[in-house]
Amino acid sequence: MEIGVEANGLNRQICETDNMSASDASVHTTANKGMHGNGVLQPVSIVHVQPADEDQESNCGESNLIHIEVRLRSTRNLNAFSTPDKCNVFKEYIKTVENIYNWRPLNIEDEVLALTADRIVVCSAKYSDGQRLVLENDDIRLAKVHIYAVKDFGPMPQDLKIDESDDTTSSSSIGSHHHEMPCKEFEDLWEVLVYDDDIKSELLSYAYALLQLSDRGANSNVLAINRLILLHGPPGTGKTTVCKALAQRLSIRLSNRYKRSIFVEVNSHSLFSKWFSESGKLIGKLFEEIQELASHTNYLVCVLIDEVESLTMGRNAAFSGADPSDSVRAVNAVLTQLDKIKRFPNVLVLATSNISTALDSAFVDRTDICRMVGNPSSKAACVILASAIAEFQRIKVITEWPKLFLNNVENEKCIEEVECLKRLAGECAGLSGRAIRKLPILAYSKCSEDKPCVKQLLHSLEKAIKDVAISHTVKQT
Fold first, then answer.
1. Where in the chain is the domain with CATH 3.40.50.300?
2. How high is the pLDDT of residue 196?
3. How far is CA 413 from the centre of its chain?
4. Is residue 33 predicted with pLDDT exceeding 70?
5. In the CATH scheme, what is the code of domain 156-372?
6. Is the pTM value of this prediction over 0.90?
7. pLDDT tier for residue 248 given thresholds of 50, 70 and 90
8. Fewer CB near the last or first residue (10 Å), C or N of the chain?
9. How big is the chain by its Cα radius of gyration, in Å?
10. How far is CA 381 from the centre of its chain?
11. Whole-angstrom Cα distance, residue 174 to residue 192?
């Protein structure tokens, strides 16, 4: 497997060509679970994409299809580029690019094109993340072009209140935050996520298939479709980030079907009340608002329930407490509401959990896909560290990398800096992706010089890893 990283606008790779062992994370579908356990949104501009013909539409789910995502500099240009002829301009430009890497932004060298588009990404589920794409003319001809512009509104808090007429027995809190997608906040999340397997492409293909089947009127009694995805694993592995990045990609891929895409980030902790039995009512109120959004058939609604164990803890375990009735009501309310929103084909629910064994078995049974997201391997850690150091170079706080390191790592494995980085990545075993991304900052703070060279930074990085490893060991004991 090849793991790629984009640095300073250069299409390049830090990769290992030897076979990588598959992740121990397993995928559980509905056929094989293997687990127990009021603000008003304002109108926005419509994102237009190239209308797909019937042949393209029928082939859109195939893994060998090429997607071209084009981000425009301004929403004012969306209408102008909604025609097939305008989209073909980007296809023709792709033919002139020599090296294209999966999910890596291109350098837009065409000055005229760069005035309109500030980002072009070519991607396919057939290739690994960062792998060099081998494109034939037919691949580009059949490619789907998705043209979009990001919104920079920021999250909109939604008040949650049961009874506005009785302030003595009810309280108001922020039940969720709404994001208009594609949004600027989520734009770069997909590329910075590094995994050993193809979990990102897998989730994107599966979620896309769920929404397509539902939109075409699939009978949920025949096909078990709940549009509920659960990601579980240790903290800091990027579960929440994957969900946000996935929703962003879906809003772009499906923008010719849904004129608006809304991301609802549920504040799980606000759904618990000090008043007896009020938690279930708060959950019901929240899902009523989600159903109101979903009632617009041209809206795509993605719901994120982070740390879902706080709402769906196993009811058997709850009865061991002194007063389990309210928590049981909360679980029952969540399950009931999930069953209700099944009738809306434009709703996708994404959930994350750090404690999968604590989840109620009835909730897990409702998931379409239950995916383990584990800590990165040494190869993934190497890419994470390299991307962080490349960012240091981009903002000019360290000296330039050796040219051979950027351009031809595979054939120059004797380079001292490369070997040092690989060795240090191997020492990051057991650390989460979040912890690994903190290491370069800690290393930079330890450098004695204001603008250290790469060797000096790697030397400080070695010290930082040892310090974090000691701290990690102490926490475990």
1. 156-372
2. 87
3. 32
4. no
5. 3.40.50.300
6. no
7. very high
8. C
9. 24
10. 18
11. 29
